[in-house]
């Protein structure tokens, strides 16, 4: 069967099933490249969610996705334009149409947007309403910073953000969360989602989407279909389809798998399917100084879908987790069938577009040693949010009795792969923990890389930034405030 890949004897043919607002959806047929946004707008005529950019940037397509995690139902805003329909299996999809049943008064979030003039042309408005709705349900009294963080992934080009932030505050004051439909129906929805069998396997027009029920089924599906496209959060793969029209069949969806995070005295182990939003509470607990860095990856919607495993496996030279994780000394576990191997993360990146991953193999776990040292992560991008960096740096410095005993610096955006700066490390190692030492490292880093000039930045700019980030680390450690980002609370 051309294009379908080999059917595994471990897989059974099962439809995609999910809840869409109040309706139970069963799809015996679906192609892996059908987006949720197209399904909503073209098949269901739910046209509230808009298509602005079709690449996860503008938030006009925002919907809520409710998923059971450890038996608890949680709703999060995601971008429907780069969410594939197959990945909705077992979820509750909530669109803006669900907020106000016909004839009912506007939802408090919508009313606040009206009262505070939060809309002009209105194209972005349903997306803002859904992001604010997600915030309103989970945080009854958000600060301005929290509101802005929730809106990082929503762009408005005519109203401006101040009225929208005011609307968010007014909606919080209006309250009513306990009376909201999603709160009232939570138990019933959770029971319906729990009854949906794990796993699905559907095809349409000769294209196949496989959702393995668990990691063992995933291992088998990849052995049977070694050329399949692995899709986790689809915040990279989604664009391959919407922007480059690339074929992705057969596709194996894994965003629902490998979700465990375990923390011991010495390390954090993260399943490859853990999203940024799922990881952040653990990071805040164990390495709070790094949360700012991760909160600047994408916007809220992207962090709710994008996985740390996807950021690594993608192998992009500008992915932002690898430099930080390499600096932290992270290791990864790759699995093929029942065989697992562990390697240092930096060894995974061989060359531009080339990673140490065999056909049929997948990334299963990321192991991060808990640092007993000073750590930092810096990102320099044109926009503060929803923008990938021109240069990113992860740094870990261990100092004993005033002498640097370990230095790990890794950069993104400086080479064809995320890479350590060995010359800069050598300039630090064994030297006094002092300004001159960091100044020497800032000079040495010029020899570590020959960066490219591209539309994000020139080679000269990248070299200057790399050196300045090393200086910045010293200034911060020396007690000089270097605050370059985040809103000051009003
Ligand atoms: C608007 C927007 C903003 C963004 N901003 C940033 C940013 O600031 N910083 C940044 O670093 N990135 C950013 N990204 C890129 C993207 O969000 C991240 O790279 C994300 O972590 C990818 O994870 P995913 O789960 O969505 O991966 P997917 O898109 O599902 O997959 C990415 C790649 O990894 C492979 N893959 C995924 N999981 C596995 C696995 N377990 N084993 C083997 N292969 C696997 C896939 O086959 C594919 O090749 C942004 C993307 C968008 C759309
Ligand atoms: S249409 Fe712009 S984020 Fe989806
Ligand atoms: S109201 Fe027009 S883009 Fe936001």
Write the layout of secondary structure elements.
Layout: E1 16-20, E2 23-27, H1 36-43, E3 62-69, E4 72-79, E5 92-94, H2 108-115, H3 125-138, H4 144-150, H5 162-174, H6 181-184, H7 186-194, E6 200-204, E7 207-211, H8 215-224, E8 229-231, H9 237-242, E9 251-253, E10 261-263, E11 267-271, H10 276-286, H11 291-295, H12 300-305, H13 308-313, H14 321-327, E12 331-336, E13 339-344, H15 345-348, E14 349-351, E15 354-355, E16 362-369, E17 374-380, E18 391-400, E19 403-412, E20 419-420, H16 422-428, H17 435-444, H18 459-477
Parallel strand pairs: 1-5, 7-9, 8-9
Antiparallel strand pairs: 1-2, 3-4, 3-5, 6-7, 10-11, 11-16, 12-13, 12-16, 14-15, 17-18, 18-19, 19-20
Task: Please describe what this structure looks like.
This protein has 490 residues and is of the alpha+beta class. The protein is built from 18 helices and 20 strands. Strands 2-1-5-3-4 form a 5-stranded mixed beta sheet. The chain has a 5-stranded antiparallel beta sheet with strand order 10-11-16-12-13. Mean pLDDT is 94; it is low at 1-11 and 486-490. The structure holds flavin-adenine dinucleotide and FE2/S2 (inorganic) cluster (2 copies). One FE2/S2 (inorganic) cluster binds at residues 119-125, 156-159.
């Amino acid at each position: 069967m051309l294009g379908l890949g080999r059917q595994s004897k471990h897989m059974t043919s099962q439809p995609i099933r999910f809840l869409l607002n109040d309706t139970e959806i069963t799809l015996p047929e679906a192609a892996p490249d059908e987006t949720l946004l197209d399904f909503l707008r073209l098949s269901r005529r739910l046209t509230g969610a808009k298509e602005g950019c079709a690449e996860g940037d503008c938030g006009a397509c925002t919907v809520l996705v409710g998923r059971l995690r450890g038996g608890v139902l949680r709703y999060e805003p995601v971008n429907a334009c780069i969410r594939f329909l197959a990945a909705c299996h077992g979820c509750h999809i909530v669109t803006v149409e669900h907020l106000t049943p016909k004839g009912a008064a506007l939802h408090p979030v919508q009313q606040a947007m009206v009262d505070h003039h939060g809309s002009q042309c209105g194209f972005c408005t349903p997306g803002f309403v859904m992001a604010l709705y997600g915030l309103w349900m989970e945080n009854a009294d958000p600060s301005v910073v929290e509101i802005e963080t929730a809106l990082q992934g929503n762009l408005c080009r005519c109203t401006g953000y101040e009225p929208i932030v005011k609307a968010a505050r007014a909606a919080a004051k209006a309250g009513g969360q306990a009376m909201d439909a999603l709160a009232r129906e939570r138990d019933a929805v959770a029971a319906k989602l729990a009854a949906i069998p794990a796993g699905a396997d559907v095809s349409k027009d000769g294209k196949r989407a496989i959702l393995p029920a668990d990691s063992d089924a995933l291992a088998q599906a990849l052995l049977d279909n070694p050329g399949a496209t692995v899709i986790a959060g689809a915040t990279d793969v989604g664009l391959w389809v919407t922007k480059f029209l690339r074929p992705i069949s057969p596709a194996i969806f894994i965003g629902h798998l490998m979700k465990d995070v375990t923390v011991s005295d010495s390390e954090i182990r993260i399943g490859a399917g853990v999203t940024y939003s799922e990881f952040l509470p653990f990071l805040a607990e164990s390495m709070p100084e790094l949360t700012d860095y991760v909160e600047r990856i994408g916007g809220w919607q992207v962090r709710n879908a994008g996985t740390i495993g996807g950021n690594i496996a993608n192998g992009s030279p500008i992915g932002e987790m690898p430099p930080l994780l390499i600096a932290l000394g992270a290791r990864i576990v790759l699995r093929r069938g029942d065989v697992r191997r562990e390697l240092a993360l930096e060894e995974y990146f061989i060359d531009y577009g080339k990673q140490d991953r065999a056909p049929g193999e997948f990334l299963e776990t990321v192991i991060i040693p808990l640092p007993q040292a000073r750590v930092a992560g810096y990102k320099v991008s044109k926009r503060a949010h929803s923008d990938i960096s021109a240069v990113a740096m992860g740094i870990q410095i261990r100092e004993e009795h005033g002498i640097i005993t370990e230095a790990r610096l890794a950069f993104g955006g400086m080479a064809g792969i995320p890479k350590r700066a060995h010359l800069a490390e050598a300039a630090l190692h064994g030297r006094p923990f002092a300004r001159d030492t960091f100044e020497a490292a800032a000079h040495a880093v010029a020899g570590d890389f020959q960066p490219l000039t591209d539309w994000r930045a020139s080679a000269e700019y990248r070299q200057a930034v790399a050196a300045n980030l090393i200086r910045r680390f010293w200034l911060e450690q020396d007690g000089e405030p270097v605050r370059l980002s985040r809103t000051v609370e009003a």
